[in-house]
Amino acid sequence: MDRVQPAAGLSDPYKNPELFRWLDSLEGVPDWLGPAETDAERAGWSDWQRRGNHIFALVGTMVPGLVLAFTIAMAGRVLANLPNSAFGFENTPLSPILVSIILGLFIRNAIGLPTVYEAGLQLALKKVLRVGVALLGIRLSLAATGAIGLVALPIVTVCIATALFFVTRVGAAIGLPPRLATLIAVGTAICGNSAIIAMAPVIDATDDEVSYAVGCITIFGLAALMFYPYLGHLIFDGDATLIGLFMGTAIHDTAQVAGAGMVYLAQYGSAEVLDAATVTKLQRNMFMLAVIPLMAFYSNRSRATGSIRSQIRAALPMFVFGFLAMSLLRTLGDMGEHPFGIMSPETWSMLISWATKTATLCLAVAMSAVGLGTSFTKLRGLGVRPLLVGLFAAALVGCVSYVLVSVAAPYTAGIGG
User: Fold this and answer.
1) For residues 72 and 100, is the Cβ–Cβ distance under 8 A?
2) Rounded to two decimals, what is the model's pTM?
3) CA atoms within a 13 Å half-sphere pointing along the CA-CB vector of 402
C-alpha cells in the first residue's frame, strides 16, 4: 500500500492539497454524463414517447409556480388563524385570502420572482381559477342561478353602459389616448384583464396601452377586493344577496370578485355572498359577446368580420358554461329521494361538499398567484392620467352599482336561500 507523501515544505502528509482531489472518485464508476436525453435518443423515439416527453416537460415547467402558489395559500390560512390561538378570538379578524395576497405581494416586490415560477402562476391564474369558478356552480340549482341572474341583469346592463359612455369621454377630456380610455372602460365595466386582452386587437391598441390598462384594473380591482366585502356588509346591513350583487358588478376581474366573496365568507360566514357575486360576474363576462363588435364599430376601425369573430371566440368565457353545467348537475341530483336514482343522499351531499372544497382551494391558489403577479414597480410607471381615469371608472361603477342594488332590494327577498 502506497503511503501518502508530504508535499514539499510540509511535514504532515495530510496537508498535501493533491490528496483531496481524489476523495470524490470511485474506481470503476463513470462520472454522471447528464440526466437529459441526447439528440440520438430522441431521434429513435416513437410518437407516444414524444408525446409523453412533452407532457413530462410541461409538468416540470408548471410545478414550481403551482407549488409556490399552493404553499402561500396554505401559509395564509395558518397565519390568519394565529389570532384564534394566540389571543383567544372565536373568529379571526384576518382573512386567509387577504393574507395570501399580501404574502404574494411581499415576495413579488421584496425579493422578486424568478422566471421558473411564471408558467405555473399563469396556469393558476387562467386555468385553476376557471376550474374553481366552474365548480362553484354545484352550490346552486338552476332556479337559484336564474333568480339571481334575473335581478342582476338590469344592474349589470346599466353599469356597463354607464362605464363605457362616461369613462371614454372623461379620458378624452383629460387627454388620454382614445384606445387606452376604451380599454380602461371595457376592463372596468365587463371582465377586467380578459376584456382588455380581447378588445386590444380589435381597436389596434399598442402594447403600452394594454399594459397601462391592465395596471389600472389590477390596482383598483385589488383595492376593491380588500375593502368592498367590509363596505358591502356595512351599507347593505349584511344582506347576502345585495352584497353579492354589489361586489359582482362593482369589482373588475373575475379573480378579484371570487376573492372578495371568499374574504366575506371567511369574515362573516355567508357563502350566499360568494354565490350571488359569482353569478353576477359571470353574467357580466357574457356581455363581451356584444361589446367587442359594438366597440369595434364605435371606434370606426375597418375590421374583417372574421377577425371580430375570432376575438369573440377568444373572449368567450367557457367556464361560464362549466358553472351552468355544475348547476344543472345540482338541479338533477336534488330531484327525487335518491340522486340520479342510484345514489344515496349522504353520498350526494359528500360529493357536493368535495366539489365545494375543491373550488375553494382552486380559488385560494389563484388568489395567491394574483399577489405574486402584481408588481408595484410596473404600477408606478403608469403615469397620473391613466390612474385618474381608472380611479374615476372604479368609483363610477361602484356608485352606480350601489344605487341600482339599493333600488333592486325589494325584489331580492328569498333569493339565495
Assistant:
1) yes
2) 0.80
3) 14
Instruction: Count the neighbouring beta carbons within 10 Å of the beta carbon of residue 395.
Output: 12
Cell of 220: 383598483
CA angle 380, 384, 386 (to 5 degrees): 95
Question: Looking at residue 276, what is its pLDDT?
Answer: 93
Q: Where are the domains of the chain?
A: 62-411
Looking up cell 396556469 gives 123
User: Residue 190 is placed in which grid cell?
Assistant: 365587463
Q: Mean pLDDT per 10-residue run, the chain (417 residues)?
A: 54 60 55 62 79 86 94 90 65 76 90 91 89 89 88 93 92 89 90 81 82 87 92 93 94 90 89 92 86 69 53 67 90 85 88 92 90 80 83 94 92 67
**pLDDT tens column, 158-197:** 999 999 999 999 999 988 888 889 899 998 988 888 888 8
Q: Which residues contact 120 (CB under 8 A, 6 or more apart)?
A: 61, 62, 63, 64, 65, 66, 67, 68, 69
Copy the grid coordinates of residue 205. 391598441
Assess contact for 275 and 323: CB atoms under 8 A: no
SS (H, E, C) the chain: CCCCCCCCCCCCHHHCHHHHHHCCCCCCCCCCCCCCCCHHHHHCCCHHHHHHHHHHHHHHHHHHHHHHHHHHHHHHHHHHCHHHHHHCCCCCCCCHHHHHHHHHHHHHHHCCCCHHHHHHHHHHHHHHHHHHHHHHHHHCCHHHHHHHHHHHHHHHHHHHHHHHHHHHHHHHHCCCCHHHHHHHHHHHHHHHHHHHHHHCCCCCCCHHHHHHHHHHHHHHHHHHHHHHHHHHHHHCCCCHHHHHHHHHHHCCCHHHHHHHHHHHHHHHCCHHHHHHHHHHHHHHHHCHHHHHHHHHHHCCCCCCHHHHHHHHHHHCCHHHHHHHHHHHHHHHHCCCCCHHHCCCHHHHHHHHHHHHHHHHHHHHHHHHHHHHCCCHHHHHCCCHHHHHHHHHHHHHHHHHHHHHHHHHHHHCCCCCC
Instruction: Give tens-digit pLDDT for 63-98.
Output: 999 999 999 999 988 888 886 666 555 565 677 888
Q: Of 174, 225, 182, which Cα lies nearest the Cα of 202?
A: 182
Rounded Cα distance, 403 and 398, in Å: 9
CA angle 268, 139, 191 (to 5 degrees): 80
Say which amino acid occupies 400: V
